[in-house]
Amino acid sequence: MASTLSSRPQLQHLTAQLDELRQKGTHFRLRVLDDMQAPICTYDGKQVINLASNNYLGLTADPRLREAAIQATRDYGVGSGAVRTIAGTMKIHMELEEKIARFKNVEACVVFQSGFTANAGTVSSILGKEDFIISDELNHASIIDGARLSRAKIKVFRHKDAAHAEELLKEIQNEPGRKLIITDGVFSMDGDIGPVDKLCDLAEKYGAIMMVDDAHASGVLGKNGRGSIDHFHCHGRVDIQVGTLSKAIGALGGYVCGSKDLIDFLYHRARPFLFSTSHPPSVTATCIAAFDILEQEPERIDRLWENTRYFKQELARLGFDIGGVSTPASETPITPIIVGDGRRTMDFSRALFDNGLMATGIAFPTVPEGKARIRTIMTSEHTRGQIDQALDILDKTARKLGILV
Ligand SMILES: *Cc1c(COP(=O)(O)O)cnc(C)c1O
């Protein structure tokens, strides 16, 4: 049956594009994890040191979180049975939202199915076509999609360049539409930190709404992982804070924090909230338990930063380009190793894997053409021995391929 479908002409343009990727050397196959996310795990039947997951604090496999998921499944079943606004709001959903709001020190919180839907659903619903979005050029795809769906006019500023953002704000100063300034707290491909404080100043100066996407900052930056707003002491200055439950928190989901009215509005207008089923009890219970761990075990975050500092220092010492696109380079547990050419990067990643290291190659269109890189992520759970072994594999493989000379 499958073979008859593949001979039909309707989708041949897709095959042609895949062939193009193969020619460029950037076509990939999905690596398949045989066991669970951990510093050492098994992909495609091969045991490797894992520098590729967003499992910053090792929570994906935490026994307490697994237990919370199992208990919630026993108590409440495997699904919520409806979208939140019809019949799918469970007590446990409200409990998680209240917990996050307290943690973030804001009035209210709404949880979405993912960070992606949190961003896309929020940006698209709070603005209309007479409005303006002032957006960092490296903001996450979910912000860009939300911006497009809103039909607002999008003004893109150079990466982390608050002065450029101000120029754009000046140009539209006398336009009647609302203005939204939006930045990632931590940029996911470069690991650098957005200028949240400077953008807050601009938002106040020009009467703009301020929004920060803290997907990679949640659980990583600020006190107990409260994020970039805490890191910059910008409490009360950011109207809309987005976070994810899929990275450091270890499970799945996204959330928006802000005023009661913002959250109430999103309950009424955010399309993923209205038209897509809410989390199963297991996911929600896992997230609740994870926030308890963030509050009770700050030493996880300390270990994450110790490992990060050591790994970066050693990468630089070996001579790798861990540059990022701006100065300063990566300031977080995400460290890119810039290779440049897409094919060379993918070859490097495959060779690393063969030598026992999982570190994903990332090329265009996820990062700009010519900026292909190996993206590494440190976690609190990597031991010094594992990090040293990873560095050794990186060094030897890079020398063999002529990436280090
Ligand atoms: C990962 C990520 C998201 C999406 O979060 P998910 O919960 O995985 O959907 C949004 N924004 C940024 C900056 C991210 O890195």
TrEMBL record:
Residues 47-393 form the Aminotransferase class I/classII large domain. The modification N6-(pyridoxal phosphate)lysine is found at residue 247. Its EC number is 2.3.1.47. The keyword Acyltransferase applies. Its cofactor is pyridoxal 5'-phosphate. GO terms for molecular function: 8-amino-7-oxononanoate synthase activity; pyridoxal phosphate binding. Pathway: Cofactor biosynthesis; biotin biosynthesis. Keywords: Acyltransferase, Biotin biosynthesis, Pyridoxal phosphate, Transferase. InterPro entries: Aminotrans_II_pyridoxalP_BS, Aminotransferase_I/II_large, AON_synthase_class-II, AONS_Archaea/Firmicutes, AONS_Archaea/Proteobacteria, PyrdxlP-dep_Trfase, PyrdxlP-dep_Trfase_major, PyrdxlP-dep_Trfase_small. It is an enzyme of class 2 (transferase). One of its GO terms (biological process) is biotin biosynthetic process. It catalyses: 6-carboxyhexanoyl-[ACP] + L-alanine + H(+) = (8S)-8-amino-7-oxononanoate + holo-[ACP] + CO2. Belongs to the class-II pyridoxal-phosphate-dependent aminotransferase family. BioF subfamily. Homodimer. Catalyzes the decarboxylative condensation of pimeloyl-[acyl-carrier protein] and L-alanine to produce 8-amino-7-oxononanoate (AON), [acyl-carrier protein], and carbon dioxide. This is 8-amino-7-ketopelargonate synthase. It comes from Silvibacterium bohemicum. The lineage of its organism: Bacteria, Pseudomonadati, Acidobacteriota, Terriglobia, Terriglobales.
